[in-house]
Design a protein that fits this description.
Elements: H1 12-52, H2 57-68, H3 71-87
Protein name: UPF0335 protein KIP89_18660
Keywords: Coiled coil
Pfam family, one: GapR_DNA-bd
Length: 92
């Protein structure tokens, strides 16, 4: 709609098309939000199942976070953490 000058009103057909397009976007986003909610509930259930079998959920979340990083990024972060821990006398 940015191609239409501000001083010219939309034709009824163009306005109808824009209305339907807007409605379509909103409905698609609503469906995706519902899917996202369902997936979040499924993930929560998997964490609960893992916890029920004795796994540490906090550790699982940390592993997931680490796996999202690329190898170079992860190595750099680990080196910085090691350096800081060494500076604080936390490593032997």
């Amino acid at each position: 709609m940015s191609d239409i000058p501000n001083d010219q009103p939309l034709s009824d057909a163009a306005a109808g098309f824009a209305k339907e397009q807007l409605k379509s976007f909103i409905e698609r986003i609503e469906r995706l939000e519902e899917e996202k909610k369902t997936i979040a509930e499924d993930i929560k259930d998997v964490f609960a199942e893992a916890k029920g079998t004795g796994f540490d959920v906090k550790a699982l979340r940390e592993i997931l976070k680490i796996r999202k990083q690329d190898a170079d990024q992860r190595a750099e972060h680990e080196a910085i953490v090691d350096l800081y821990m060494q500076a604080l006398g936390m490593l032997s």
